[in-house]
């Protein structure tokens, strides 16, 4: 597959765009990264994703694929012969990976975002409690899914690893902004070790945003929390 046949419309700071970028790296698929400008939507994006009008969009030849987790599955299926599968072979394990990926997007990341917007101390405490409950759920999910291996997917990064790992840079930025350790080694030791392994993987390192650069970007899109 020629490089020009695979393109990804996205933005460097988006955790959702990180998902297909990691998946493409894991499958050793060369691609062209078409960066969108923050605050605007290109004609190509609007044409490629007229329903949601948002990134990421994978362009495979003349076929657009939208929604980050769907794109990851598409990459896994399309380049199935290149690298390990990103979804477990067992139907139940596969269902659990999809369940927790949905939980991360619908509950856990929503709480993480609200932390950056939290105003008073009481609001912050409520968000911390919500995140700590979520982390406890994910700690147990990791132990169950990994079966003693380094990643949710076992020996190699997979679908659920990507679903959660794409948020780690934003997690660091949030910890700095609120001066609170959200991913605590004492409370979630397995998840903390997983995060370290994930960030050090050669498929992840090149696309993981630098914390300082991301923190500066965050100031543009999130109002400063009140003291």
From TrEMBL:
This chain's source organism reads: Arabidopsis lyrata subsp. lyrata
Q: Do you know which CDD domains this protein is assigned to?
A: GST_C_Tau, GST_N_Tau
Q: What class of enzyme is it?
A: transferase
Alphabetized PANTHER family for the sequence = GLUTATHIONE S-TRANSFERASE U17, GLUTATHIONE S-TRANSFERASE, GST, SUPERFAMILY, GST DOMAIN CONTAINING
Asked if the record carries the keyword Chaperone, the reply is: no
GO:BP terms for this protein? de-etiolation; glutathione metabolic process; lateral root development; negative regulation of response to water deprivation; response to growth hormone; response to salt stress; toxin catabolic process
All copies of the GST C-terminal domain together span 90-222
Listed under catalytic activity are: RX + glutathione = an S-substituted glutathione + a halide anion + H(+)
One GO MF term on file is: glutathione transferase activity
Membrane-spanning ranges = none
State where it is primarily located: cytoplasm
Name where it's found.
Answer: Cytoplasm, Cytosol
Q: Which Gene3D superfamilies match?
A: 1.20.1050.10, Glutaredoxin
- Family statement drawn from the similarity comment of this UniProt entry: Belongs to the GST superfamily. Tau family.
Q: What is this protein called?
A: glutathione transferase
Residues forming the GST N-terminal domain are: 4-83
User: Which of UniProt's keywords are assigned here?
Assistant: Cytoplasm, Detoxification, Transferase
Write down the EC number.
2.5.1.18
Can you quote a single GO CC term? cytosol
């Amino acid at each position: 597959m020629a490089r020009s046949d695979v393109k990804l419309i996205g933005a460097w700071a988006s955790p959702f765009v990180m998902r297909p970028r990691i998946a493409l790296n894991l499958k050793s698929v060369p691609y062209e990264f078409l960066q969108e400008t923050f605050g605007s939507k290109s004609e190509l994006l609007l044409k490629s994703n007229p329903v949601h009008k948002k990134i990421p969009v994978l362009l495979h030849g003349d076929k657009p694929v939208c929604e980050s987790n769907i794109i990851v599955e598409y990459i896994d299926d399309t380049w199935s012969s290149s690298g390990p599968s990103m979804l477990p072979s067992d139907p139940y394990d596969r269902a659990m990976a999809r369940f927790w990926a949905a939980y991360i997007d619908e509950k856990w990341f929503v709480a993480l975002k609200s932390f950056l917007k939290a105003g008073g101390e009481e609001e912050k405490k409520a968000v911390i409690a919500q995140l700590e409950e979520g982390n406890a759920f994910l700690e147990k999910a990791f132990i169950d899914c990994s079966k003693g291996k380094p990643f949710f997917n076992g020996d190699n990064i997979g679908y659920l690893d990507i679903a959660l790992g794409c948020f780690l840079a934003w997690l660091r930025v949030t910890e700095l902004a609120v001066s609170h350790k959200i991913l605590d080694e004492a409370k979630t030791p397995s998840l903390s070790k997983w995060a370290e392994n994930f960030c050090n993987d050669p498929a992840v390192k090149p696309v993981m945003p630098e914390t300082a650069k991301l923190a500066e970007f965050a100031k543009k899109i999130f109002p400063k929390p009140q003291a």
